[in-house]
Each structure stands twice: as C-alpha cells, then as structure tokens.
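Q: Given only this backbone (57 positions), what sequence would you predict?
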C-alpha cells in the first residue's frame, strides 16, 4: 500500500502512522498522527501545514 506524501510508518511492525512537515524555521518535524488510517493522517498533516502558514504553530 502506497502512503500519501508526508505520511509514513516509523516502524514496519507497528500499524501507527507518522507525519512529517516543515515548520516556520524550515526544520523538519516528525510526529505521530495518532491513527492507522492514511487519509486521516493526511488530513492531520494538512491541518499542521495550515497552522504553519498562519504562523500559529
């Protein structure tokens, strides 16, 4: 199964998905999405990106 861009599995034995994005300073942030659903993880990533654009994160 191919995961969306910015969504990955940190450990292949765990079903937990992680997201990655760039913060305001250009530093890559990796954090747990808290889900096993790729579409929901992508939605969480998009919300984080929106917060970064608004300078609220």
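A: Predicted residues:
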């Amino acid at each position: 199964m191919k995961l969306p861009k910015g969504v990955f599995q940190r450990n292949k034995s765990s079903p937990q998905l992680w997201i990655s994005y760039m913060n305001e300073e250009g530093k890559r942030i990796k954090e747990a999405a808290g889900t096993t659903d790729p579409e929901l993880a992508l939605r969480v990533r998009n919300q984080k990106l929106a917060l970064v654009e608004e300078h609220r994160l």
